[in-house]
Design a protein that fits this description.
The complex is a heterodimer. By secondary structure, chain A is of the alpha/beta class. In chain A, 52% of the residues lie in helices and 13% in strands. Chain A is built from twelve helices and eight strands. The chains are: A alpha/beta, B alpha/beta. The complex binds guanosine-5'-triphosphate (GTP) (2 copies) and magnesium ion (2 copies).
């Protein structure tokens, strides 16, 4: 992992006495490689290394007996600070029903995550309603209905109607059913599909969600920056959910998405089962990305 | 890259940057740029536009393979097993393949061997109806091996040309799920000794370096004869296939460029190479 590589870098430099800025540059190169291999976006890596280097040429490293370890600590702490820090709790409305909307690329894990989120809310004593706004994908509505049955959470569907109308109608339906929460499941879409992105903008303007959550696959590569930037600039995101973290990808997309949108990662998907949704821990994620 | 740049360190760095941002991966990008540098030096090239055509050739070469078409003539029914991680686009890609074969007047049967995920069977049934092909399925929760066994019998009985098997998405680090998919392959081999003609790994073009681990582990578990690279209609470049090509020599056979049944094309290394730099 990175700590071994940095140890090797500084082993070669032992016996030279004080560490110089050039030596730190060598170490920064190793960090850069590790982050790129972990799928952190190229530009995000550049900015991040710039910030870390400023601290790495400070006294805490240059005077240290274990400069490699010092640098790892700085990198880890900077990364955890970058990914943490903003409001990671869910926002609830003072006038129910609270409305959450899940958005993202095709196959990211939205439908599954919507059901998992419903389960978490039920545990908190709330009464969620899952809403089937994906009218495009074959059996998408059925998929949400099956998940609703498996979790004992009601699902509102209006078949092949406009997603905008379904979202609007779900509010009255929730109130009549005594539900204080609505979670909208939307169709996967490309950030460059202006018609589909406009559909989300219309839903947002009509029902004013309290949370717009971008669902991102943890194995996403360099494109994570493009995707999250587009979704954020068109919709204004309130948070991110990173899925499939039970895989073995390093998950550098987490750093990219946070760096580019400033949005908190609020939850992580840790499996296909409906109880596999956990809070996001920035320092755990930092360790994972650094390998 | 502007076409009138001189070949200095900045130029080579910029080339590296483009490749890394296309998900080619650091090591593969460095190797590729080094190779191109050497070729440019040997040929005494000083014009950056000529370098672009060298690198396009190099990329095409890495991706051009024998056996880059589907291999179905050897046996009837030709069996295609489709595998990959969750959400990559397997089920949709199967619909697209079925549509392609149907248009070539081939008799196609599909097998719904994802008996686990909510509404997976319903999803494939809708596609089968739209394309106009038969689907062999059991109930949700049934043994996927049993579905495969039934589907092979049906394909033999109906003299189908092609049988395409949909499997549940699985992350490659889940040992028990990888055991299950190896077992499904063994079931096919029991019924058809030469085994499936094709095992297609479906890879999402937005995937980063984890794709290499996916290819390695699925190759170990079931063998992989080809890759279907999906969602290339997005902004991701799918550069991960270069690392996979150089390490595992697995050819990309198809690319997915949309959500409709006609949104699939044969892989064209030339088109791919050019798109990397757009
Ligand atoms: N291992 C694992 N699988 C997951 C996780 N989240 C979702 N999945 C799986 O990923 C696949 C895609 O999930 P969906 O919920 O259908 O994704 P989606 O974003 O709704 O897809 P579209 O509606 O087509 O855009 C399914 O096989 C899910 O079971 C996770 O955290 N871990
Ligand atoms: N834009 C685009 N979307 C695609 C493409 N291929 C598949 N999709 C979409 O990706 C999502 C997931 O596709 P599926 O076919 O359900 O993926 P899967 O691998 O079978 O998923 P699991 O069975 O849950 O593992 C769906 O919304 C598809 O419409 C493609 O080439 N382009
Ligand atoms: Mg969905
Ligand atoms: Mg599927």
């Amino acid at each position: 992992g990175l700590s071994q590589r940095l140890q090797d870098v500084f082993k070669k430099l032992r016996g030279k006495g004080k560490i110089s800025e050039d030596d730190v540059n060598l170490a920064m190169r190793e960090v850069r490689l590790a982050l790129l291999e972990a799928d952190v976006n190229f530009k995000v890596v550049k900015d991040f290394i710039g910030r870390v280097k400023e601290r790495a040429i400070g006294q805490e490293v240059l005077q240290s007996l274990t400069p490699g370890q010092q640098i790892i600590k700085i990198v880890h702490d900077e990364m955890a600070a970058l990914m943490g820090g903003s409001e990671s709790k869910l926002t609830f409305s003072s006038r129910p029903p609270t409305i959450f909307m899940a958005v993202g690329l095709q196959g990211a894990g939205k439908t599954t995550t919507v059901a998992k989120l419903g389960k978490v809310l039920v545990k908190q004593g709330r009464k969620p309603l899952l809403v089937a706004c994906d009218i495009y994908r074959p059996a998408a509505i059925k998929q949400l209905q099956v998940l609703g049955e498996q979790t004992g959470i009601p699902v509102f569907a209006m078949g092949q109607n406009k997603p905008l109308d379904i979202a609007r109608a779900s509010i009255e339906y929730a109130k009549n059913r005594g539900c204080d929460m609505i979670i909208l499941d939307t169709a996967g879409r490309l950030h460059i599909d202006s018609e589909m992105m406009d559909e989300l903008v219309q839903i947002k303007e009509a029902v004013k969600p309290d949370e717009i959550l971008l669902v991102v696959d943890a194995m996403t590569g360099q494109d994570a920056v493009n995707v999250s930037d587009h979704f954020n600039s068109q919709l204004g995101l309130s948070g991110v959910i990173l899925t499939k973290l039970d895989g073995d990808s390093r998950g550098g997309a987490a750093l990219s998405v946070k760096a580019v949108t400033g949005c908190a990662i609020k939850f992580v998907g840790m499996g296909e089962k409906l109880d596999a949704l956990e809070p996001f821990y920035p320092d755990r994620m930092a360790s994972r990305i650094l390998g | 890259i502007q076409s009138t740049k001189k070949l200095d360190e900045d130029f080579w760095e910029e080339l590296e940057e483009i490749l890394i941002q296309a998900d080619v991966g650091v090591n593969t990008s460095l190797e590729l740029v080094e190779k191109v540098k050497q070729t440019a030096r040997k040929k005494k090239i000083s014009d950056s536009s000529e370098v672009m055509s060298i690198i396009a050739d190099e990329v095409r070469e890495m991706l051009n393979y024998e056996g880059a078409e589907l291999n179905l003539q050897a046996h009837t029914p030709g069996i295609i097993m489709v595998v990959g991680v969750n959400g990559a686009g397997k089920t949709t890609s199967i619909a697209k393949l079925a549509y392609m074969f149907k248009n070539e007047q081939q008799r196609v049967i599909l097998a719904a061997a994802d008996t686990f995920r909510a509404a997976a069977i319903d999803q494939l049934q809708i596609w089968a109806d739209r394309v106009g092909v038969e689907l062999i399925k059991h109930q949700e929760g049934a043994d996927p091996g049993a579905v495969v066994f039934d589907a092979i019998s049906a394909a033999k009985a109906r003299k189908a040309d092609v049988l395409i098997i949909d499997t549940a998405g699985r992350l490659q680090n889940k040992t028990n799920l990888m055991k299950e998919i190896s077992k499904i392959r063994k079931i096919i081999e029991r019924e058809i000794p030469e085994g499936p003609q094709e095992v297609l790994l479906v890879l999402d073009a937005t995937t980063g370096q984890n794709a290499i681990s996916q290819a390695r582990i699925f190759e170990e578990a079931t063998g992989v004869t080809g890759i279907v690279l999906t969602k290339l209609d997005g902004t991701a470049k799918g550069g991960i296939i270069l690392g996979i090509a150089s390490e595992l020599k697995i050819p990309v056979k198809f690319v997915g460029v949309g959500e409709g049944m006609d949104d699939m094309k044969a892989f064209d290394p030339e088109v791919f190479a050019r798109a990397l730099f757009e």
